[in-house]
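--- STAGE predict ---
source: upstream dedup step, 1 unique chain passed
mode: sequence only
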Amino acid sequence: MEEGTIISWLKNEGDPVAAGDALCEIETDKATLTMDADDDGVLAKIIIPGNTKNVRINELIALMVPEGEDHTQVEMPTETGTPSAAADTPTDIPVPVATSGASSSEFSSVRHVAGGKGHADLSPAVRYLVDSNSLDPAAIVPTGPHGRLLKGDVLKFLAGDPSARTQEPVAAALPTPVAAPAPPPPPVTHPVVPPAAAEEDEYVDIPHTNMRRTIAKRLTQSKTTVPHAYSSIDCDMDSVLRLRKQLQGSGVKVSVNDFIIKAVGKALKAVPEVNAQWTGEAVQLLSNVDISVAVATDKGLITPIVTDVPSRGLQNISETVKELAGRARIGKLQPQEYQGGTFSVSNLGMFGISQFSAIINPPQACIMAIGGSRILVEPTEDGHRTKTVMAVTLCSDSRVVDDALASTFLENFKENLENPFKAALL
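--- STAGE serialize ---
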């Protein structure tokens, strides 16, 4: 984590603060946490207000003074702004400067500067018109908000409207002989209009949250640097479903996913070479079996960790997953509850997905993608029988887990799931 968002301050300027008091709520890349005070004192000045994004680590956000001192007389540091903000401000763009007695409502944001051809602020429709007609956006007068170029501006320019052309210095021209014939009129050209051109601004920008940025960064890193290999197998789920129904009749509520997590834990103990990670210098075999369980939230996917799975009972796993998933959805997980893990499980079967492949969460070596169950009919000596089958795909780092090892692990997992009593999944 390099930066975060200050959601709100829980203390006001002038409030007394005791060591351990929560000062503010901070949104990290995966969760919402509170920042606690290290010492007693008085909160003298809040430098970075609530609802401020992209606050860098170790950046000064507030000032405290010892108890008994006048907090209103605190001396402000000479530099309190973010270093990145100053570095990112172009020197040729005017920035509003506060004057004596001016209120914050008098300031306006910096306008967008109309750029040359290929400017990033052009909408798809405008860009199509500009590129198709080989135009320079700087030659067209923009009329949109904050100096933005609109589709109508380009069409007026193509129609020859003088008001749509920017005023440019007229270069000195050579005198033209009086007797010279008038140049022929330019050929009539029809501007290229995009098919079914959409109205301006037919899209909505959704700002990235810190969590979304981190997910995008890690997924891209994983798919571009980790050689993914995929192995699939079908598991007969009839025994698990019968056992689950019996447990429900006894008042024990567990899900199919709880059986899967337990079966994975048992398989990792039996095939410890899969419970490993790639470091660049060596393959590390991990002694602890901590399984990351994918949970969908409004802000993105997060993987809370069920620790020491082989030693847990099925009901304990169920209760732990429910408790972690509940806090994950409201952003209340602690970092140690989602950072780490030795193996991941992602289950989309309850959403109607029959089979899929997942992306490995480095430095882990594997993630298991669980699909939905389906009914199959198979022939028997007496005729035929139906069975419920679930598709499982192991996505593995081929630097750590080769095809033979992946097959051995999946066979062990399948044996555990199809024989829950024999595997002691309870």
